[in-house]
Amino acid sequence: MRAYDLVELAGRNLREAVLRNSLTTLGISVGVASLVAMLSLGVGLQRLATRQLGRSGLFDSIFVTSRQLRGRGGFSQNQPTTPYAAPKTLDDAARKQFEAIPDVVEVYPNLSAAVELRLESGRPDDGHFTVMGGLPESARGSEAFDDVQGSFFSSGNAPEVIVHAEFARRLLGLPEKDPAADQKLAKEEADQLLNKNVIMRYSERQAGQITPAPAKSGDDSADDDANGFSVVRREQRLKIVGIVNSEPYRGMRQGRTSVFLPVDFAESLNMMQAADMAGVIRPGQGKTYSALVVRVRKSKEVSNVEDKIKGLGFNTFSIVDASKGITRFFRILDTFLAVFGSLALAVATLGIVNTLVMAILERRREIGIMKAIGASDSDVERIFSMEAIAMGLFGGLFGVALGWLIGRTINFATNIYLQRQDVRPESYWYVPLWLVIGGITFSIVVSWVAGRYPASRAARLDPVQALRHD
How far from chain centre, in Å, is Cα 92? Predict the structure, then answer.
């Protein structure tokens, strides 16, 4: 039997019992719709989590420290080094090595410094102490700047500052809020700070000479290189260009940071860092970094770059292990959602079996006539299998559309509720192309399997007995 005749005959048979076949197809559609709706929820939540963490800079960043930082709070416990190997210094030479590694797009220091800020128009003694952090240009895309009041830095070397809303309230002399409450300033309050100048007082590290203490008997430290540095108090005029409500990612946190400078400009100020004390303890060591943040082009390359940095003799930390746990969690979630979503499709398979078995009883004479004029058992079996496949195809197409519509409707209603709670709307449902193709294919396969028993039963009918059927 030709394929065209097979399709035409199956279509005619389906049209003869439109209501029954339509209800069976609708049952398949409901099953596919529940499967697609549940899986699209899992996919959407995974995309949302990945997008939020990706924008924060966690997934594509590596935090690098020297193996000189040992003990509590260090990262050397899980990364042992040779007992007799001298630890590498995290300096400019090491920074250039990291920049030369393939797939590395940016290396910047994890700058933190204690500073004092006051409004230029205020009294000289009206300053507020806080912690300053350096932000790279890549932080512009961080979610912390989605609702920024003002703007990001105009350039990497601009004498500009972005302040946290909580610290902005201190500058304006406003009453403090509960730390868990929204710190966002009203528009008229923000306008009092934006584009205004502040004076930042900080400690500058200057190259100098340290006079060694008189040597004691048997102590040869006086012969060591006594190069060191001196600390000078400086003031810098800055313009407030933005106010943020949450702290943007810039590396591992070292306490609450309330003001942010462009990292290149902050480096040029040569602020005193905690790692600079190593220059006193280890004479001649020169400028070092407490930590460097290495940004990678793609998150999947983080592991390779991290291994290369470890091979250079430094400690590393990244979110890769945590991200593997998140991926594993969403895979388990998708599996459970697929299982529960498939229950309705399993019920629909019973409807297919019932529909085709009833069709056999009604068409016994027709089957007998086809066999009498030369139709083989395989021809009869293919006709019923084609009918089951047709119901699976149309049920899958309509089910995917219905599942997409269910997801969009629930997503729309959810976002309306979240907007009333002052939460930014998000897309929690997502139907990728592979889910559309997979849903239709799964529907066809399940329908074909469900139609195997009725088809084989029809093929085994005795034509003589079928013709005698009244």
Answer: 32
CA–CA separation, 175 and 289 (whole Å): 37
Six-digit token pair at 258? 């309330």
Q: Which of 250, 245, 241 is nearest to 56 (CA)?
A: 250
Q: What is the 3-state secondary structure (H, E, C) of 88-116?
A: CCCCHHHHHHHHCCCCEEEEEECCEEEEE
Closest to 356 in 3D by CA, of 339, 376, 336, 381: 381
Residue 156 and residue 140: Cα distance in Å, rounded?
11
Residue type, 389: I
Query: Are 166 and 199 a contacting pair, CB within 8 Å?
Result: no
Q: Is domain 60-110+289-318 classified as CATH 3.30.230.10?
A: no
Q: What is the pLDDT of residues 163-203, one digit of tens each?
A: 998 899 888 888 877 766 677 888 888 888 999 999 999 98
Q: Which residue has the higher pLDDT, 264 or 355?
A: 264
pLDDT at 432: 86
Evaluate if residue 383 carries a pLDDT over 90. Answer: no
Helices (H), 109-153: none
Q: Is 200 helix (H, G, I), strand (E, B) or coil?
A: strand
Where in the chain is CATH 3.30.70.100? Answer: 60-110+289-318
Top-confidence range, 7-11, 255-259, 276-280, 432-436 = 432-436
Contacts of residue 139, Cβ cutoff 8 Å, sequence gap at least 6: 57, 145, 152, 248, 249, 250
